[in-house]
Write a structure and sequence with these properties.
Elements (H helix, E strand, L loop, with lengths): L10 H18 L1 E5 H20 L2 H10 L3 H14 L8 E8 L6 E7 L1
Antiparallel strand pairs: 1-3, 2-3
Helix pairs in contact: 1-2, 2-3, 2-4
Length: 113
């Protein structure tokens, strides 16, 4: 996808990190990370929720291929997606919380709306 952020990582490392963050977001409802990571995670999480809203076999397989934990996938299809049935996008929100103490990276909390 054009204009995707590289996040200072090799492509396989970046994909694994994003998969882990998206899984963690669905598992816990919110995560604290850097602003740039939060924006990437938001993009992928919205795509996963949109797929889960379809609920057909193909979209289930696509989500199961991306999200790393089976119980989180089931939670996504059974709990999270029905909650957004009448909403077209905008499932996540990013709130900036200021610089990180160690390296002053801009931090944010991303959560499911």
């Amino acid at each position: 996808m054009p204009g995707a952020r590289k996040l200072g990582r090799a492509s396989d490392h970046r994909k694994a990190m994003l998969r882990a963050l998206v899984t963690y977001l669905f598992e816990n409802g919110k995560i604290e990370t850097t602003v740039t990571r939060a924006k990437e995670v938001s993009s992928m999480a919205e795509k996963m929720i949109t797929l889960a809203k379809k609920g057909d076999l193909h979209s289930k397989r696509q989500v199961f291929a991306y999200v790393t934990k089976e119980d989180v996938c089931n939670k996504l299809f059974n709990d999270i997606a029905p909650k957004y049935a009448d909403r077209n996008g905008g499932y996540t929100s990013i709130v900036k919380i200021g610089p990180r103490r160690g390296d002053a990276a801009e931090m944010a909390i991303i959560k499911l709306v």
